[in-house]
Each structure stands twice: as C-alpha cells, then as structure tokens.
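Protein modeling request. Please complete all fields; requests missing the sequence field cannot be processed.
Requester role: graduate student
Desired output: 3D structure, token encoding
Chains: 1
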Amino acid sequence: MPWEDIGAHVLALLAYPGALTMCALGLAAEIGAAWALVPERGGLGAAARNTLRALRPRSREVPPLAASAVILALAAATQLAAPLNPVPPAERNSLVAAAGLLGASWLTWSWGWGRRAAAPQVMLAVQACWLLAVLLPSIEPGNLRPQALGAVVLGNQVPLKLACGLLYLAALPGLLMLLPESAPLGPPGAGRARAPEETGFTVVRALLWLPYCGLFSSLFFPAAEGPLGVLRFLLATAGAAAVAIAIAANLTRRPAGITRVLYLRLALPFAGFAVLVAALTVALVH
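Delivered output (286 residues):
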C-alpha cells in the first residue's frame, strides 16, 4: 500500500471521521442523553458534570475488552460516507462497518451481561433488526458502498429504504445502550463510574454514537462534498442521535416490560415486513 494511502487511513482513524470527531459528537450526545433520560438529577449543567465525571480515567491501564471495542469502533467510523473522508469511496464498505460495530457492541455488552436489568432477548432482537436495516438496501443494487446506497433516493428502492430507515432508527436506542435492558452499566446519567473497567466502557459507548448514527446518514441520505456536505452529514447524524434519545426517553418513562414488548412483538414483525418489501423490490426489478 502506498504511503499516501496509509496516511489517509491514519488520518481517518485519528481525526475525521475517526477519534477526534467521535469524541466531540459522543461527548455532546452523552450529555444530551443524560439530560433527557435522568432529568431529575438537574439541568444541562448537572448532566455535563456527571458525564465528564463518568468519563474521567480512574487508572492508566485500559481494560483489554474496552481497548478492543475502541479499535473496532474506529475502524467502523472510517467506512462512513462522510464528506471529505480521507478513505477513498471505493474502499469503504457497509459490511465492514457493520462487523466492526457488532464486535464493539458485543465486547461491551458481554462485560455487563450479568446485570439484573439486562435482557439478552431484547439485545438479540435489536441486533437482528439493525442488521436487516443495514444489509437489505444493498440486495438489489448489489453494492455495499455506503455512498452508493445513500445516493438511491428515487425508484423502486424508496419503499425498502423507508422501511429499513424506520427499522434502523427503532434499533438505535438499544444499540447505543440507552435502555436499561441493553446497557451494561445502565443508561447515561444513571450514575458515576466507580472502577477503571466502568470508565472504559463508558468511553466506548460515547465513541459509538458517530459510527452508528453516521452509518444511518450514510445509507439513507445522499452524500455531498464540500463544507456544506459535511454540515449536512453532521446534521443528519445529530438528528439520528436526537431521535434515539427521544425514543429512549419515552420508553424509560413507560411501565416495566414495554421495551421487551416493543422489540419482540413489534420490531421483529416489522423486520419481517422489511424482508418482504426487499423480496418484492427484487422481483419487480427482475
């Protein structure tokens, strides 16, 4: 690989759309989520203080699982169809992004698998719905490049993209660990981290905001180059994060068990409907 390509990948990993961008968006999203999910702890200032306290390192040693999850999340971020992404469009792949995010999520979830509030059935349902939302739009075009999939805004693909987009947004609260059933340490704002391992996984959750929400923007919105394109991408990504927080805030105020009902009895059947739409789309085209 030429040195220029290596430099471009390193820049994407460490700066944009990698570590620096992920930290900035993740910090803002964690503060917003803590404010929305636990309003009784005070206003936005209190949410910011609690979030920064939870993210403060407790040790110089990085938990191995947390470090592995961070690397996978960084790799997933480089695959986004973010304007001005140093990684060439031909080298980006939504399947690579999905695999990295799956690995990072399971490394994080496995650490808190024994929590009483955790619900493995809900987490599996969320992952299944999300994977379908990511992969189904690529069946008819036969293309896994995020920017190519996002460019499809007209034609037979519209019903499928609409169904998959709704499915993706519905899965985001669980994927981002905003719900007690899917959060290994509880949702943002639930309490301060008390151990190095807890701090490590709080950092991982903060870093996952951009890859998950940015992949939504990449797959369901056309990309545009230039500063305005970057602004539009960040606004769409922030919008997806805001929708995830709003859904999570609504669910956490509902009676116990409503999250399980939503994902097992509503989201999974809707995922089956999306599969049917995909089959019909392929049949109409061919």
